[in-house]
Amino acid sequence: MSIAVDNIHEQQQQLQMQQQHQQQQHQQQNCMLKEMVNDRWRIIERLGSGTFGDVYRAVDIKCETQSVAVKRETHSHGKERTLSREKGYLLKLRSVTGIPAVHFYTKLNTYTLLVMDLLGPDLEELKSYCGGRFCLRTACILGLQMIVRLRALHSQLCLHRDIKPDNFLMGVGKTSNTLYIIDFGLAITYRMPNGQHNPMLKERSLVGTPRYCSLNAHNKLSLSRRDDLISLAYILIYFIKGHLPWQGLKYKEMGLSLDEAVRQVKTDYTSGPKAAELRKDLCHQMVQFLDYTLNLRYMDEPDYGHLCRLLGDIMRTNQWSYDMTQLDWYNI
């Protein structure tokens, strides 16, 4: 009886601690509102949150029509600080089209702030706005810009390692037709100082997002350029079909973790007994796109031009123009 009472007491303490932690987070988020950053930007509203912390919209007090995004990362013991890494890659890639500019960075006692360009909606939001999928033409045009972004990153020896629709955003104003890539918190350099490719090693845990990451990530292998492109292939199928077969799995009923359940189903659909089902209703160029990325070896230099030609061939075959104003979200 005393054991049961002790368990209840322990659960109550844990719940109380969780509530206190949530309350502290809420207070911290509210404290940021109307706060000034570097005596230049006034924080107006909280836009969302990620694994690193929270994102806010701020306005330039000298020109209140100009907004920026402010990322805030709270320092926690034992937690890797990702904003420092992100700032480093954004500065390294600042000359690349489709990379948001860094305006300010500071590391304080309890948190770090990164001020950067405020962009438009991400591709996940736009897909939902368009009824849950994109037409093939829109998918191809977006895919071409995504290939160009990844080729530019890889040419600077940068691996993104978390390619997903949420990390591709459209610009605003004059750059509203430019696709940006964001969130470099998991990025790494894939060559060593001596110029040699990083060796393939075992990771401690999965790197990336289970829905879009490669089987190499599920198998906890070091990632390379091929893995960014495999994720891109999955994204294009997701855009065209509206879903991927390994979404919404009842993994607990399967007696598996989410990672293991997705890995199992993904294996069946990419190279196992259900491979034909994943490729069903895809044009042959899109099937070739997927298969090309899946067949790349760890240290291979991808042929980005080949991937662009596959999508360009779809456009030519259907006599589609590259007019960005005809993308799905402009015609609703």
Automatic annotation (TrEMBL):
InterPro entries: CK1_Ser-Thr_kinase, Kinase-like_dom_sf, Prot_kinase_dom, Protein_kinase_ATP_BS, Ser/Thr_kinase_AS. ATP binds at residue 71. Transmembrane segments: none annotated. Keywords: ATP-binding, Kinase, Nucleotide-binding, Serine/threonine-protein kinase, Transferase. Residues 41-321 form the Protein kinase domain. It is an enzyme of class 2 (transferase). GO terms for molecular function: ATP binding; protein serine/threonine kinase activity. Its EC number is 2.7.11.1. The keyword Calcium does not apply. Pfam families: Pkinase. Belongs to the protein kinase superfamily. This is non-specific serine/threonine protein kinase. It comes from Macrostomum lignano.
